[in-house]
Amino acid sequence: MKIMAVNAGSSSIKFQLLEMPAEKQITSGIVERIGSEEALFTIKYNGEKFVETLPIKDHGVGVQLILEGLIKHNVISNINDIEGVGHRVVQGGEFFKDSTIITDEVLQKIIDLGEMAPLHNPANATGIKAFRQVLPHVPQVAVFDTVFHQTMTKDAYLYGTPYEWYTQYGIRKYGFHGTSHQYVSERANQLMGTTQTKVVVCHIGNGASLSAVKNGHCVETSMGFTPLEGFPMGTRSGSIDPAITAYMANKLNKSAQDITDILNKKSGYLGISGLSNDARDIEAAIEKGNERARLAFDIQAKQIADYIGSYYVYMGGLDAICFTAGIGENSPVLRQMIIDRLAVLGVELNKDLNKLRGERLISSESSKVKVFIIPTDEEVMIARDTMRLSHE
Ligand code: ADP
């Protein structure tokens, strides 16, 4: 069966069509700059890439274009060949403990949860509405970033804030990138041949988070109420002293929201280096001796190593560290900087293997903790759940 995995943003729709249960990617693509006269539609098929520039008024038009594109490029002969559509939804709150078939009530709940994820859930909901309209008879499934982290216990997910903030306003740690953390930790367990494991997954992309996964269940994660918590990322600061927000709002004569925007969009690699939010630029600048670029990686590596140390204590040991996502999969430099800081735990990389790409073990033979590169596949996780739920 053919399943579509969709990730809708405020001005874009990313999609993949997969043949299931073989988990084979048939095609992928993206509609970008929705709302613009010069929007872009890209579709990759059979090793070829087709790009069109055209006006795309809204998400509905974007979805039409995707489906017409699939037929035009002979990927499918009829839109009814698509037997399920899985949608990435960022915030599922405490309400969603599993992926779910999308009904009117589920869609409304996703919209309501947008209060906690204003940059993501409304856009995800717009994508869902557009696909439901064009494919009304095809099961649509919501797959949440937060679900995998719902197994955390209160000592891990509650903050030291007034308890009523939690009961009345839902203030707690939710965690994000759940489909990736689940995919990678399950794959690590397959590679180790057992589920009785203590694993840390380092998802390091432009957005980045860690998770601690004990015997297949998430027990801790670094992102929190929003994706801003954790360690510095491409443009996010990660955790800081919360009092800085009010202090800097006062100094810069800005609102708390303005400061939060700076912490989300102008911090991390970009803010520290003053150069770029892209890890490749940071690496190139480090090579040339740029101090602040070096600091951008150093601060991030230090904080990641600190989290891993605390997860080691929390889980009572550690069997494997897995690197995934754009930077985790592709930056031997950052991986080395992180693992060097964990020498006290007996973790050691094989320097030659660390230079390679693709799924592999990269720790040395004598390392007490295995280190893996495991390329993530969030679309496969979305397609798996969509297949499971649309056949129940
Ligand atoms: P997101 O999905 O959060 O946007 P990705 O997982 O795609 O992010 O990761 C994007 C990051 O991966 C960018 O900072 C980019 O520089 C980095 N990246 C991609 N390829 C490489 C590479 N070959 N070396 C170092 N970093 C890379």
UniProtKB/TrEMBL annotation:
It comes from the Bacteria. Mg(2+). Can also accept Mn(2+). Its cofactor is Mg(2+); Mn(2+). The record marks H177, R236 as: Transition state stabilizer. It is an enzyme of class 2 (transferase). Substrate binds at R88. The active site is at D145 (proton donor/acceptor). ATP binds at K14, H203, I204, G205, N206, G207, D278, A279, R280, G326, I327, G328, E329, N330. Mg(2+) binds at N7, E378. SUPFAM superfamilies: Actin-like ATPase domain. Pathway: Metabolic intermediate biosynthesis; acetyl-CoA biosynthesis; acetyl-CoA from acetate: step 1/2. Its EC number is 2.7.2.1. Keywords: ATP-binding, Cytoplasm, Kinase, Magnesium, Metal-binding, Nucleotide-binding, Transferase. One of its GO terms (molecular function) is kinase activity. Homodimer. Belongs to the acetokinase family. This is Acetate kinase. It comes from Paracholeplasma manati. The lineage of its organism: Bacteria, Bacillati, Mycoplasmatota, Mollicutes, Acholeplasmatales.
